[in-house]
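yo

u said u wanted the structure for the complex thing, so here. seqs first:
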Amino acid sequence: MQSMLHITTLHYLVLGAALFLLGVIGVLTRRNVVIVLMSIELILNAVNLNLVAFSHYWQSMPSRLGGGPTALHGQIFSIFVITDAAAEAAVGLGILIAFFRNKETVNIDEVNLLKW
Amino acid sequence: MREFIQYITSYLGSNQTPGTAGNIFWVVVYVLLVFTGISLGVIAMNWLERKILAHMQVRLGPMRVGPHGLLQPFADALKLLLKEDLIPAEADSVIFWCAPFMVVLAAFTVFVVVPFGPTHAITDMNIGILFMLGVSSLSVLGIVMAGWASNSHYPLIGALRSSAQMVSYEVAMGMAVVSVILMTSLNAVGTGTLSMIGIVQAQLAQHEWFIFKFFPLGLIAFFIFAVAMVAETNRAPFDLAEAESELTAGFHTEYSGFRWSLFFLAEYGAMMAASSIAVTLWLGGWLRPFPNMLAGAGWDQLFSFIPGASFLFLAGLCFYSTARMPKHPYFRIQTIGLAGFGALLGLVGLILFIPPVRAWVQDIFWFSAKVAGFMYLYIWYRGTFPRYRFDQLMKMGWKVLLPMGLGILILTAGVALYQQNLWHP
Amino acid sequence: MTNQNTLSHVDLETPEKPFLDANELVINMGPQHPATHGVLRVILRLDGEKVLGLECVIGYLHRGVEKIGEHRTYTMFNPYVDRMDYVAAVSNGLGYCETVEKLLNVEAPPRAQHVRVILTELNRIASHQLWLGTHALDIGAITPLFYTFRDREEILKIYEKYCGARLTTHAFRIGGLQYETYAGFEKEVKNFLNFFRPKIDEYEELLTTNRIWLERTKGVGKISAQDCIALGVTGPVLRASGMKWDLRKAQPYACYKNFDFEIPIGQNGDTYDRYLVRMVEMRQSVRIIEQALGALPEGPIMAKVPKVMKPPAGEVYHSIEAPKGELGYFIVSDGSTQPYRVRVRPPSFVNLQALDLMCRGQLVADVIAVIGTLDIVLGEVDR
Amino acid sequence: MAPVATPFFFYLLSALMLVGGILVITRKNPVHSALALITTLLAQAAIYLMLYAPFVAGVQIILYAGGIMVLFLFVIMLVSIDRSIKERQFNSQWLIGVVAATALGGLLIAVYTKGASLFPGGPVTVAAEGDNTQRVASLLYGQYMFSFEIASLLLLVAIIGAVVMAKKRI
Amino acid sequence: MPDETKSPSQHPPQGDSKPSAEKPAAPATPPKPAAVATPAAKPAAAPPKAPVPTPTPWDSPMIAKLRRTYGSGIEPLTYAGQNYIVVDRSLIPELLYVLRNEEKFDYCVDITAVHYPQREKQFDVIWVLYSFPRNERIRVKAQIADGATLPSSVPVWPAANWLEREVYDMFGIKFEGHPDLKRILLPDGWQGHPLRKDYGILQQDNQWVQINLGIESGQ
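structre next:
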């Protein structure tokens, strides 16, 4: 019970892992490309959560271990991940539009030709 | 009990916002106060927009409900609440249901960080302006939801237009905002701030409203923001999302009654939010005119009379209109009502002369007055401009405002760097 | 036989392909739509915002005016024509009366003709004012509407004083006028002209150099003179395309040949040129009215026409330059008291055909602008 | 801003996130999925605030909820989804997918149970956010300058790629 | 004197059909039946003095040229100062092309029809043409029987599109080759063509009204 009331870094990590798994399941099982892309966003967010949680953890560490208030590397990394997510979404949705224009479907099972 | 009272009184006299002080009670009080104020502002705007627009267009506007139509907004609100709340049969009912709330939420949450005074804000966030831009950009989600869930073509086109428009203009808006943030870094420390209160204090410290900073850079940035904010709030001449001559009513074509009134509320709320950003960033927020040039107790005293005086002036206008009312039994109630309204305004004005109140409302008054100026601009635009076409709107956003914003940003950065070097050689 | 389909730049037969093939949006604009000026229904095929093609569905206001004409005497039918283009009722009446006069082989006396010209030109101003207000409203400028309506009121007051009606005036009679002008008519019209001249400047101040107005109207809904002629489009639309043709000059009727006025023309045939042409037309109308007032002769106002009108058997086509274009009447008489056949050649109906051509490849907002600039009145389209 | 009732908000927000995540991968209608994802993202922004990362939270709201998700909704409306809603929602290897994910989950649980001792049991104490933004900025434009420029290059490439992909005729 | 000689006797209500009297050779147009549509009105209507004007033949270089090609297929007449040509139905597309391309009648003002139920060829179809270069108006008139078709003039003047649709809508005259010949003013499923003389002024398609408007009758 005590561990439930004190939110530790591990809590955030478990939450991140759960989100990650949801994303993986979505990517592996769904047929709709849009939802697959959204599942990828879920995965990236799970990673981000971990990064920020670790950054939070590091800030509490002594600075001789590389911690301290300026140890915000996790947050920096998560910003890069968000940037990457934006790029991925833009290109992915661009591909989706091109795909939809040619095949008139958003079904990922039909993206197996590598040409159209 | 005593602890509770102590908890409440502990905040009084603090020089922090209640959110920063971590005082939940006062946060709740401030939230209630701010939202009541915003709602009152929306009601007043509703009436003022009609009247001002009407007088621009050689007509009278509402005249029947209450003296000079003063009660018209209330009558309208009542009508809207009593109207049947229709949900189209083919609509996606869940999304249709929650879209208006999303829009209202986005428009009103923004006020969490708006500084009506150095301590008169719900909270002072480290990322204040970022928060405002981010949350206000969420309203586009509500609009898209509304348009899509209606399952009808006009709302869908309206939603697509609106989302494209808001996303595009946010970029230019961001450039203008960043140039202001660069200006805040011109201090001894050399770091700027994103906090709304910090931005106003930087203007106070630098003895200059940012609209005049690095003339004309600040002015151009302000201009970019002023254009982009009209586009962000979907108002004329950028009201393409609800262009009544093209898309009947755009994304809220299928809405009626209460839900429609929520969109209405959100639109005006968003207008005030955008104006507050502009006022905070460029026009010195709560600062009274010339706080540095006309400094000193005497000037403070003089300026502190203005809020009460302006209310008394409005009351005088009311009494003048009362005197000009037709002397006919048919108008008796209206005349009495107008006189009563004037008396109310006069009373408020007199209360504002009481010394502690006088000091207390100073900041709020100046902030509201500046926002009101922007509101007038909105109405003025609507009365004057034709509507842009969608491609022209996009062209303006991406090909005019964005390059301008980028240029301003680079120039501001250059000038700021130069001044920094003067500071820390 | 050579194919002489002269529509130049757009192939109306083959549909254009949308951006996403499966995603062509079909939108039903109207019949209940604020900007279709009545009950016009336009079925738009859209690719996003781009118009791939459109089809007009009309007839919601069809009242069978032509059929009614066959069952009324010549005199009784006169008020009906006012109801077609109800914003230019006086012009309709002029066209009808002159056509029947042609059948009867009579001519209205000069004083009647002058009064007719004055009232018709006032009507042209009123019609253009209404067009300007609604057109600007469609493009999003809400204020000009109130200004134009304020000034149009003055014209309607003159009508009201003259014949008791404001909109569907029934001002003219076959053979001349029913009423002599009221006392002070000339002075009031003169006052109106003096009042109105600065008002045109006021409208122009609001719009002509307004950047947004320019962007919204320049290059929008372009149509060449050649296409106009092929599609039978007349009136300000044709003139804005650069064709200097006005029935008042080309085949003068009433007493227009006595007056000196210009025919404004545009170069590009876009919405902005049509706007300018109409603005100049208002000024020219003021000029004509001034001359007509100056030359208003004394004399009878009614030609000698029999009480029971029985035009000899025969058929006549006569057309006038209504505010919207060529308004023609084709009346077949069988010698009885009722026309055997009345055909109205409505300018709005024919002009509306050009909508498809003018809107292809433009955006939805331009469709609104083009409908506005065509200046259609659905009462006349559907008759 | 002092944290209030941290456990309560943590569990509330994580529940929101997980429910949102589940809805994302189970809804038929992509629009519903997108809205569920937005809920998840906003809840995550709040969790960032709890982790004293306000700048990341702001970026999350602006970029994710306000930018990327609008893009998603835009595209969903552009492609017609009527047909895909009526079709089968899960592909043929859904069972394998779930099994693989469960295996991965088991692995993660194993790692956490082994490594739990690495983390301190108590709450992490960190100075309040203070000048978080300024620190992030100095790191981003100092130490990570090069990565930052690479990221901007990546965005440029993405812009060009998206335009090339989506535009019919360039 | 003139009024009783001309109009009441064999002269149908129509101006054009009378030429059989003075026309040299009426080629394809069969002699109009003398049955008069509204005979009763005639004698009383006579204006006291002015002689009743009648269509008279006219001539011009253009007509001379057309005559050389089409001989007696065309019959130029003028009435009240307005010129028109009565042409044989078989000349219709060709003559319109010639008028448009060679004689520069580039503007099709109007297409309309008149119904004469008593005649054998019940319909007059009338093209009102105008030439911008010549500033001249002309009408072309052809007679066709009920149920007969005419070639569409849309290829000649695109303006004819809606005008022909209206003629079809109101009279039921079909135009071959029209790109989209359907009703324009009346609803698509409507029965009957209201501008025919046998269609009463109060008549309507009750079935359509009941089905589409859900009311018994529009009256």
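The CA atoms of residues 17 and 129 of chain D lie 23 Å apart. Residues 54-78 of chain D form the longest helix (25 residues).
cya
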